[in-house]
């Protein structure tokens, strides 16, 4: 599985939120702590908020926080929002069994990623 820089940044941002004490965390703090370019992070946070994984509040005491408990958000949740899941490959003729192999690998990856929560990551 190839994970884009955008998805890696999203995973790191959600991990930062999962590790934060109660209350909103500013985008500036997330960007600085994780070395994520701020403009890039703003787009990622917007995408995660629209998907319902995080919430936000404006103002001087504003910032971002998880919409659910960290134990209820998996790596797969974030990856699905940012990357989506690849569509099945189709191969012609004798190469058709390769499509089945790739589909099996993707199912295993997805199953593993749905088992790992952000609570587990921050408690490691």
TrEMBL record:
KW DNA-binding (keyword) present: yes
Keywords from the named record: DNA-binding
Cross-referenced PROSITE patterns: HTH_RRF2_1, HTH_RRF2_2
Cross-referenced SUPFAM superfamilies: Winged helix' DNA-binding domain
InterPro entries noted in UniProt: TR_Rrf2-type_CS, Tscrpt_reg_Rrf2, WH-like_DNA-bd_sf, WH_DNA-bd_sf
Pfam families in the cross-refs: Rrf2 (PF02082)
Annotated PANTHER family: HTH-TYPE TRANSCRIPTIONAL REGULATOR ISCR, WINGED HELIX-TURN-HELIX TRANSCRIPTIONAL REGULATOR, RRF2 FAMILY
UniProt-recorded name of the protein: RrF2 family transcriptional regulator
Organism name: Nonomuraea mangrovi
